[in-house]
Design brief:
The chain is an alpha+beta fold. Helices cover 30% and strands 23% of the residues. It has four helices and nine strands. The strands form three sheets. The chain has a four-stranded antiparallel β-sheet, with no helix packed on it. Helix 1 runs antiparallel to helix 2. The N and C termini lie far apart (44 Å).
């Protein structure tokens, strides 16, 4: 069952999917309509899940489920991945590509860098130590609210500074 994202508790289990570029307004709306429909019908072992979706910074799709209502089974998680794969194909925008990492500079510009090039980009100051990183491995609504984005120095990428 779909509920508005702001009504989910801080402990909500989340998954973050990143588009490689900013999404146009019509793309965000299409994604949200499709994702809300998916969440509204999402279930685990035949029981409805209580969840929601959100778009952040014009490129991040957040899918959340309130596990205090009903835990997500492996099959339900697989169903959500299948949904995102189908969504990718229908909108022709990759959302599951974990090889691109998003950063935000002090001018609030969001840019992506291939994971394999982060160290080189930091060494050449193309990624500044003061920039923020969007860590798509965060797993709760509270983490997203407090750490998305977060300073590079507080993230896994700090080892490259």
């Amino acid at each position: 069952m779909y509920v508005p994202y702001d009504q989910l508790p801080a402990t909500t289990r989340t998954w973050i999917y990143q588009a490689g570029r900013p999404l146009a307004d019509y793309e965000r709306k299409a994604i949200l309509v499709s994702a809300e429909s998916f969440v509204n019908n999402w279930s685990s072992h035949g029981q409805s899940l209580r969840g929601s979706v959100a778009m952040l910074a014009d490129r991040f799709l957040i899918i959340g489920v309130d596990e205090s209502y009903k835990a997500v089974s492996g099959c339900a998680y697989d169903t959500s991945l299948k949904f995102v794969e189908t969504l990718e194909q229908s909108i022709e925008i990759p959302l599951l590509d974990r090889s691109q990492i998003a950063f935000r500079n002090k001018q609030a510009k969001i840019y992506t860098v291939p994971l394999s090039e982060i160290q080189e980009n930091m060494a050449n100051s193309r990624i500044a130590a003061e920039d923020d990183i969007f860590d798509t491995s965060l797993t709760t609504k509270k983490e997203i609210e407090n750490k998305f984005p977060m300073p590079i120095m507080n993230s896994w990428a700090s080892r490259y500074l």
